[in-house]
Every structure is written in structure tokens, then in C-alpha cells.
Specification:
The chain is about 40% helix and about 10% strand. The protein contains 19 helices and 14 strands. Strand 10, helix 16 and strand 11 form a beta-alpha-beta unit. Helix 1 crosses helix 13. The radius of gyration is 23 Å and the shape is globular. The N terminus is likely disordered.
């Protein structure tokens, strides 16, 4: 691992413009539902952005109070969040999202609906004082085995992904919230998760430009205010450095070939693809030198020590000549330019209407979720009237989605059919155990990416061989052959996707 020597020089943030610029380009996270003193102090010293995660959010009103607290210290602060809707939600981390994710919207393929969903999601963010969203995912999910993108993608067709990415950007930014299109140059054709290791895409240049880059061109044409980098190695474009650290990819391709002039944000620098290979300090210096403007860190590291380490690493790199000062100055100015845009676009709301907006939203999300359903019925299927047993065949959640957000449809089905029971199963004995737990009740088997989990497919074999009247609900990518008395593909595991499926099962 390459490391960077830590500076012992004392910095005066009030006098040192270089140090202020180094703080300006950082996007750190923090623990808790109120801002810690160290974060407020850093905002006074030059920090211009903060990142919010599920741990920071308890309710719309609490979030509005938090963003107001941040803005009392720095009025133009960029408040960023990873709110894709669908499986990846921070606003509704404890309940599941009121909006379906990208794959459901791609399945409907109505760009006006996608625009409407993004606009309503943006209104909700703005009402809570959030003005910068690390979304949408513009990744073309060309590899069905992809463990981290999947239903976060609009689909496997580049043109479909492109038109919905553009619609999402337009809708979100019409609400005054800056879009951050990700993960450049495209994370869809990977078989490993960059949270854990460094993925590699070996596609030829012509394939990359026709497939991976097509949605990013559309996002740029739609005026996306930010682009997030991917921690992936793409040897055709740069055989030596992952995209986040590659001058060829960020400056030559994104800035030069695609003509993009907005903010470039890194994916989380604490992800193992960077942290375990370059280290976060050296990685941050290399990312800025390559053309990135903002360093995202805070999903896994959320303390003042991390901010201090990165600030000092950037300042030391400038003073040693490893990072041109004009590059840091340019990056900091791009962050400030985005802050000015959010102010002019109305994207730093006071949050005073957070509760009322939150309660009025969701109708468009449920409409979209209903339209995204794909049903395969046996001729003799009739809706359930007696309380069933919901067997959730549950895989390990990837880090982007997290395991704190509930998924499935048991709660929604219980609301429609009181007395519904449920259980969670996740090993090679899942089928037999679920059969025993269900007893004489009708079984509703809920799966997520059956095609990627042999144990899950085997469990369905067991259930269907003994109980052919089992209903199967696929809440991941619908790649496996539909089976069961009724098969429902929801194209995502958001709460509204579960509700839409439960309505069909109960005949509502």
C-alpha cells in the first residue's frame, strides 16, 4: 500500500486559503441526528459540503432541523444524500421507500413518469433542506450477476438507460436539487462489489463508448450538475489506475471527450477498492490530481480525525508539488459554483414544510410501482382470501442497500389480509424449514435475485414440488424463469413495490 507522510505543520484556517480550499473539496459524513460540534467548527473553517446517511435521519422534521442547524453555521452549505429511491433509501431507511427504484421505472419505460417520480423525490428532499442528491445511477446493468447495481439500474439497454437517466436528472433538478449521475464510466458490467475489492471491466473501447458512456452523454446533455466516479479498473481506458484516480478517464474522457464542465465527485474513498490499495489520503490526492473536485468520505468513516487527515494530506501534497495548487483551487471553485446554483435554483429550503410534503407524496410512487409489475398467472389462480404464510428467502444485502431497511411484502399483505404470518430463511435448508413453518397455510415465497443464489432456487424447487399453489414474488432482477401459481416481478424491493404486489395477491 502506498502511504503519504502526515504533515506536522500547524494550519490557521482563518488565514490559510489553501487550507480552506482543502476543506472545501471534502464531503464528509458524521454520526447522529444532530450536527456534532466538530462539524460545525469545520464549516466555519471552510468545509462546504456534508453527506447524510440513514444514521442521520429519524423523521422529516428532524432532518429539516438538522439541515437548518448546518445552514445556521454556513448558509451556502451543500447538503448531500444518497437517496436513489427504491432499494437505496436514506429518507425512509426505517420503513422502505415510497418510490420505486430505477429498474421499476425502466420496466415501465415512460420517461414522463420517471421525470415525475424524480421531481417529487426532489421536492421532498428540498423540503427537508437537502440540495444535492448522489443519484441517479446511470449504470447499464449488462451483467445480470452484478452484485451491487442490479435493480439500481434502469436496465440493460443503453438507450433505455440514457433516456431515463436524462428524465431523472431533469425532474430532480426542476425541484432545485442537484443531480449527481453515477458511477462514471459505468459500473454495470462488474461481477464484484467495489465496496469490497477493485472490479475490472475488460470491454473494448467501442463497446464502452456505445454502452457505458451513452447514458452519461444523455445526463450531460440534460444538464446534470455533478457526476460521481466509479472505483473500477477499465484497462481499455487506463490500464494502471481505477477511474476515480485516472486522469485519462476523468479529464481526457469525461471533461475532454464528453465535454462535461460540472462537479466531479468521488465515490466513497473508504470503500475497499481505494482504501485497501492506495489508502484514503493518497487516494484523495490522486483523485484531485486526476480531475475530481470533491472527495466523498463518510459512509464508513465519519469523524473529525478523517477530515483533518484528508485536509492535511491535500495541503501537504500542494506544498510538496504532488498536487498543483491551481488544480485544488479549481476544484474548490467548482464546489462553490454548485452551491451558488442550488441557491439560485431554490434548493436550500428551510424544511418548514417537511412534514406536510412527506405526507402528500407517495401517490406517484405507488402508481409507478403498480405499473412496473409483471405477472405470470396459472389459469386457475384466484386471489388469496385466507391468511397466508410469507416465506422471505433473504440474501445478504450489499452495503449500498444496507440491511437496516425492511423489504418484502409481509407487512403490506398483513394489512390487506389480517392474520398473515411470515418468516425469514437464508440457508440450504430454507425450503424444508419454510414448508414446516407454513403448516397448512398457502405460501407466498418472496425472493430477491433468484438467478444469483443457488440456495434460493433450490428452496423454491422444494416449495413448489410440495406446494404447487405457492405464489412467487421476485423483488430483484427477474432473470429466472417465472414459476408458481402466480409469479410477480416487482423490479425492486421498495415498500411501494411490496404494496403493489400485495394488492394483486389479495385481489384489491
Amino acid at each position: 500500500m502506498t502511504t503519504l507522510a502526515r504533515s506536522t505543520t500547524a494550519f490557521d484556517p482563518e488565514k490559510d486559503g489553501l487550507t480552506r480550499d482543502a476543506l472545501t473539496v471534502l464531503q464528509p459524513g458524521f454520526p447522529g441526528t444532530t450536527a456534532p460540534d466538530w462539524l460545525l467548527r469545520r464549516l466555519g473553517e471552510g468545509l462546504a459540503s456534508v453527506g447524510l446517511f440513514g444514521r442521520n435521519i429519524a423523521s422529516p422534521d428532524q432532518l429539516a432541523a438538522l439541515t437548518a442547524q448546518l445552514r445556521a453555521e454556513r448558509d451556502d452549505v451543500l447538503v448531500a444524500i444518497d437517496e436513489e429511491g427504491g432499494d437505496v433509501t436514506r429518507l425512509e431507511v426505517g420503513t422502505g421507500s415510497s418510490f420505486p427504484g430505477n429498474n421499476a421505472l425502466g420496466a415501465v419505460d415512460d420517461v414522463e413518469l420517471t421525470k415525475e417520480v424524480a421531481r417529487e423525490l426532489g421536492r421532498r428532499l428540498a423540503a427537508c433542506g437537502v440540495n444535492f442528491n448522489w443519484a441517479p445511477s446511470a449504470d447499464v446493468n449488462s451483467n445480470p450477476a452484478n452484485p451491487v447495481i442490479g435493480v439500481r439500474s434502469f436496465g440493460a439497454d443503453p438507450d433505455l438507460v440514457a433516456r431515463h437517466t436524462a428524465a431523472y436528472v431533469t425532474g430532480l433538478q426542476s425541484a432545485g436539487v442537484a443531480a449527481c449521475t453515477k458511477h462514471f464510466p459505468g459500473h454495470g458490467d462488474t461481477a464484484v462489489d467495489s465496496h469490497h475489492t477493485l472490479p475490472r471491466i475488460d470491454a473494448e473501447a467501442v463497446v464502452l463508448r456505445d454502452r457505458e458512456l451513452t447514458p452519461f452523454r444523455a445526463a450531460i446533455a440534460a444538464g446534470t450538475r455533478a457526476v460521481m466516479t466509479a472505483h473500477i479498473l477499465v484497462p481499455t481506458l487506463d490500464p494502471d489506475r481505477p477511474a476515480t484516480l485516472s486522469h485519462r478517464i476523468l479529464t481526457d474522457v469525461l471533461r475532454g471527450e464528453l465535454g462535461y464542465d460540472g462537479l466531479i465527485v468521488t465515490d466513497g474513498m473508504e470503500m475497499r477498492a481505494i482504501a485497501a490499495t492506495y489508502g484514503i489520503e493518497r487516494g484523495s490526492v490522486l483523485a484531485l490530481a486526476a480531475g475530481a473536485d470533491a472527495i466523498c468520505v463518510g459512509g464508513g468513516l465519519s469523524d473529525d480525525e478523517t477530515v483533518r487527515r484528508l485536509r492535511d494530506a491535500l495541503v501537504t501534497a500542494v506544498r510538496s508539488g504532488d498536487l498543483p495548487e491551481e488544480r485544488l483551487t479549481d476544484a474548490a471553485e467548482r464546489v462553490r459554483a454548485l452551491a451558488r446554483w442550488t441557491a439560485s435554483a431554490g434548493g436550500r429550503g428551510s424544511g418548514t414544510q417537511a412534514s406536510s410534503v412527506a405526507t402528500t407524496l407517495g401517490d406517484v410512487g405507488l402508481r409507478a410501482a403498480r405499473r412496473a409489475l409483471r405477472l405470470t398467472r396459472a389459469e386457475d389462480f384466484t386471489p388469496l382470501t385466507e391468511p397466508p404464510y410469507v416465506a422471505a428467502l433473504t440474501p445478504v444485502a450489499n452495503i449500498a442497500v444496507g440491511d437496516e431497511t425492511p423489504w418484502g411484502l409481509a407487512a403490506e399483505l398483513t394489512r390487506l389480509i389480517p392474520g398473515t404470518q411470515t418468516g425469514t430463511f437464508s440457508d440450504e435448508h430454507a425450503g424444508a424449514t419454510a414448508l414446516k413453518a407454513a403448516g397448512g397455510r398457502r405460501i407466498v415465497a418472496v425472493v430477491r435475485d433468484e438467478h444469483r443464489h443457488p440456495w434460493m432456487s433450490a428452496a423454491l424447487d422444494t416449495l413448489l414440488s410440495s406446494r404447487p399453489d405457492t405464489v412467487v414474488v421476485e423483488m430483484g432482477l427477474p432473470q429466472a424463469t417465472p414459476r408458481g401459481a402466480l409469479h410477480i416481478a416487482t423490479h425492486g424491493a421498495a415498500r411501494v413495490c411490496g404494496r403493489a404486489a400485495a394488492e394483486v395477491i389479495a385481489g384489491r
